[in-house]
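Protein: SPI-2 type III secretion system apparatus protein SsaO
Species: Salmonella enteritidis
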Amino acid sequence: METLLEIIARREKQLRGKLTVLDQQQQTIITEQQICQTRALAVSTRLKELMGWQGTLSCHLLLDKKQQMAGLFTQAQSFLTQRQQLENQYQQLVSRRSELQKNFNALMKKKEKITMVLSDAYYQS
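Structure follows.
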């Protein structure tokens, strides 16, 4: 029984380590989401400024503005795709963490039962 407790202690340590790693990965993804959102907002603001522009320009300057707008639109689409990928990664991490937490809770219940059995055996002898 005590050997079983040692095995459970090793497993508990492994699960705690995995949970810690997942927590760190979640924080990293949240940070990346915030950075992506900030950049997307800046690109969107700049794009709105260019689209709201009125006036006359030479054909070369007008072509430059059009190219800037196309580049900004491409960046905005890229940020949108990146945000979706980050959200998917985050949901996968949440799912994996939930599963690990269930396993951890089950392990703790087993540990508690074994500890109770051992303490009952100790008091009975």
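Remarks: The domain at 2-57+64-98 is CATH 1.10.287 (Helix Hairpins).
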